[in-house]
Amino acid sequence: MLNYKAPLRDMRFVMNEVFDYPAHYRALGSGEDASPEVVDAILEAAATYCEEVLAPLYVSGGEEGCHFQAGEVTTPKGFKAAYAQFVEGGWQGLSFPTAYGGQGLPVSLNLLKSEMMGTANWAFSMYPGLSIGCINTILQYGTEAMRQQYLPKLVAGEWGGTMCLTEPQCGSDLAQVKTQAKPLGDGSYAITGTKIFISSGEHDLTDNIVHIVLARLPEAPAGTRGISLFIVPKFLVGEGGALGTRNAVHCGSIEHKMGISASATAVLNFDGAIGTLIGEPNKGLEAMFTFMNTARIGTAIQGVAHAELAYQGALAYACERRSMRALSGKKEPEQVADAIVWHPDVRRMLLTQKAIAEGGRAMIYGAAQLADKMFAAAWAGDQAGYKRHDGELGFFTPILKGFLTEMGLEAANLGMQVYGGHGYIREHGMEQIARDARIATLYEGTTGIQALDLLGRKVLLQTRGQCVRDFTAQMWVLARPGLLAGGLRGRMARALARRAVQWNTLTLRLMLKAKADPEQVGASSVDYLMYCGYVMMAYHWALMAQRAEQALHSGQGPESAAFYQAKLQTAQFYFERLLPRADAHHRMALAPASTLLQMPVAAMAG
Amino acid sequence: MLNYKAPLRDMRFVMNEVFDYPAHYRALGSGEDASPEVVDAILEAAATYCEEVLAPLYVSGGEEGCHFQAGEVTTPKGFKAAYAQFVEGGWQGLSFPTAYGGQGLPVSLNLLKSEMMGTANWAFSMYPGLSIGCINTILQYGTEAMRQQYLPKLVAGEWGGTMCLTEPQCGSDLAQVKTQAKPLGDGSYAITGTKIFISSGEHDLTDNIVHIVLARLPEAPAGTRGISLFIVPKFLVGEGGALGTRNAVHCGSIEHKMGISASATAVLNFDGAIGTLIGEPNKGLEAMFTFMNTARIGTAIQGVAHAELAYQGALAYACERRSMRALSGKKEPEQVADAIVWHPDVRRMLLTQKAIAEGGRAMIYGAAQLADKMFAAAWAGDQAGYKRHDGELGFFTPILKGFLTEMGLEAANLGMQVYGGHGYIREHGMEQIARDARIATLYEGTTGIQALDLLGRKVLLQTRGQCVRDFTAQMWVLARPGLLAGGLRGRMARALARRAVQWNTLTLRLMLKAKADPEQVGASSVDYLMYCGYVMMAYHWALMAQRAEQALHSGQGPESAAFYQAKLQTAQFYFERLLPRADAHHRMALAPASTLLQMPVAAMAG
């Protein structure tokens, strides 16, 4: 039943009609080559590759998983050939500088490509996906020699890359990192320690794997201020990228996971592996966090991807599976029963998935324009511009990552639910989507970590609510002209205006509560994040509805009219059937921290 | 990390202090033997069996799964021995009539036993669990000869039983059942057809398996009024229960499922298998639904079971795993970091699980008293009493089954979330709980089916809201004395009173809307069910809080005081942090059906 079709019509709507990407690219330093024709050609080619090469490997790859034997990892059948096509197509270099073999296109285009690849086959997309952080780190912090040494092969996709942070005793709390880096006297270091949960840490798709590793120099300060960053390749690399001897980093095992089993999650043992310091000593954590915002948007995409794939699978089944009759009378009298798509509760589930997939897509494409500006500034060496745009983006990323991955998981579970008992068996692929989607709220910082970052850092500490005031000002601009209008437009405008006020008031109240009780931040954070997500998605649905209404007014052929009508109807669904959840989160976010903390730990066991 | 301990303290609190089971059993015809001492001894013995025999097989059984070869199913290692102990302990007969070898104790005791078995090892518990429907059907509809033939072995647990409803083309819509029953002239029938998703349909735990099969007689009316019920044993049974020849029912395969892989889900092919008609011709569906209410409570228990197990696993980890520091200052300064149980968001997750597990337990033990009365009437041949109690119970079952399984799934997912990335790998068992919990909202009628049963049948059609008026009257009785009180007691009382009014008003509004648009029932049903669940659980938490407060006032030792304090604190948590979700469901239930149905099916694909 799973038969991924890239939603190009919707992607173009969001790019061109909602966010005016053509104008955005024209204004962007790095965007001059991203003409509408080029963009279109890239989207079409990526769609074909995803639909024809990656999607057919989704269920089989998940079923087979990766194989581990004596330190070597074999990816599932078909992955090597599909990856070779990926390299051949030059897909890895899409948004990297031409100086290192990339195509120099804006990073947003890479995110769109990632969305399609991830929807077609999330586990596969993680292999090239993990390299991106490695490449960005070397671009930003490496010397020109390092760049020449590593980037051409990484940008071509011939080598893979990883980020090695987590250790058995610590994930979110990197202050506890123990891996040691011992200077060898020749400028290089011997790296010793164990890293776990390293996605793409070992596999058979590339000739070399370049690890970016967090480790401590001798006598480095304890905690986060004593962590440095090292490049540790699987095979040592000579001048011009020639492969040398095997380095002392070995895969001890791969994890047996609930899902994404085609993605190898490695335990890596560094036994005095040769590494090179990159960036300043003891400032590794800052460097590591430089591109965290884009990495997190990359994970937010997983929410959209799995909502989209689960929606496509569930819709097809709902149109085919027949059960009972509509309560208002037979819809398909010639059939033994009506297709379940006629039952309102099945519609509720399908529209929830659709609203999440399309609403999430709009949220990501909006934020991707900020990412474009941030990278353009970074590669142009404009530190101030980079910081400004990174700050703007920083407000969006925890909301996108936290909220969209939670919603993606819900949408994936609804996909199973539409299938009834058939959703629970492997055959249809729906349960695989739910298992694959489950990781998204855990890695790249759990929802709880995103929420602390949002409320504690971004909103309270760094901007004292300014980021919320800025965003809600945008909401007001969108809402104001419609406040007195009738029908859907007026209802949405008034709902949006009310939420804009409510969001600011909520933020202010939490600011005051947090002053009185520092534990309030953690007590409110996840409900606050979910509240922000629902309201931010409401803004994006109102924006899409506005554009759809304009398009309908300007006259459309019947096929386009149906598309725009569906946009308006999905927007209405969102405001009536999903946005009300924000009220519950609003109220729960304001509950006192004491309720959570008053119970003695010993009494919790009952 | 999973190390199940039966929550006997809480079970006794709910039984004895909240619902006064001793008095209930004294009043019950079948309850005279269920003295407090007997009940206690049974609970202790069941707890020991579950903790020591079943729990250790949970992760290994899930990992290994069932094996299928040439029509035979082998259960995972250890299951046979564990099942032998189950039979030896006489556990299957606990609540069945002594005339057939049972112990004649109230059915509620069996539900408590099932809760412990299901928490320790849900997949295992399904083997004896599925027999119960088969036994009840034969007890109620079989002739005395059939009872003598089948019941002693089934009640002893030496044979297993199943219910064979689902076919490839139909699950919920049994009108589409195609399996044929051809009279053989000697009073028996040849059954031909394919049944799927048959839990315990084939396995190696018992000498025989007795299938209760839905099939059609020749020239039976189309639809649900042409379905009859047949007993089709795997091995034919002679007088006195002697095993005869192998019947023509064979297992074609077992399903590869997302979870509960230790439970065999069989495809059964009936190729002219010999069957006996049980009950009246063409009235099989009614007979099948007779004990649907108890079967659904049995599935509702899965929500409590997985919430409890996930809570126990997550709490243990949260006390051990160290990450970062509490925002109000170090809690464990001598350690490298604080245990994550100190972080308010981790508390929020743990308390959510605890509130679901304990609140759900109370809901089930309350309903179980109605089940006791229903069965006592049924076995005493009191049709009027049976119908009255079954009607009362019928209001609770869709709420318990629908709401508690959804909440159990949430609690299981929170268990993984507390573990962070470690929750996603198989090792700790947490992801297995989430996979196992996922089936509960699908089988025995999906959440959507429960919701239609609740709003469409129970509330609107059968009682015109009387069941809601009856339950909310109970809420008023509990709330009234506290309405003017200060503190938690007053807040809970006022919240409860407000919800009692709101629930009735919501029901009335939906009744009116449904008259104007029959599709409104399906459009509102799931949100209505969830609303009912949150409010009903609020009543149970208020009830538990009241009892805990009384106990504290009457003076308690420090250990008991901590238990009762924790009850009050969890009740407070429930009212502040979970009950507000009812508002969102309230509003979403009132949204018009047109929003769901206005989009043309062709436009849904985008």
From TrEMBL, chains A, B:
Keywords tagged on the record: FAD, Flavoprotein, Oxidoreductase
Annotated Acetyl-CoA dehydrogenase-like C-terminal domain residues: 491-600
Residue stretches making up the Acyl-CoA dehydrogenase/oxidase C-terminal domain: 282-453
Entry keyword Flavoprotein: yes
Domain Acyl-CoA oxidase/dehydrogenase middle residue range list: 163-271
Stretches assigned to the Acyl-CoA dehydrogenase/oxidase N-terminal domain: 41-158
Requisite cofactors: FAD
InterPro entries to which the protein is assigned, alphabetical: Acyl-CoA_dh-like_C_dom (IPR025878), Acyl-CoA_Oxase/DH_mid-dom (IPR006091), Acyl-CoA_Oxase/DH_mid-dom_sf (IPR046373), AcylCo_DH-like_C (IPR036250), AcylCo_DH/oxidase_C (IPR009075), AcylCoA_DH/ox_N (IPR013786), AcylCoA_DH/ox_N_sf (IPR037069), AcylCoA_DH/oxidase_NM_dom_sf (IPR009100)
Family the entry assigns: Belongs to the acyl-CoA dehydrogenase family.
Full protein name: Acyl-CoA dehydrogenase C-terminal domain-containing protein
Organism: Limnohabitans lacus
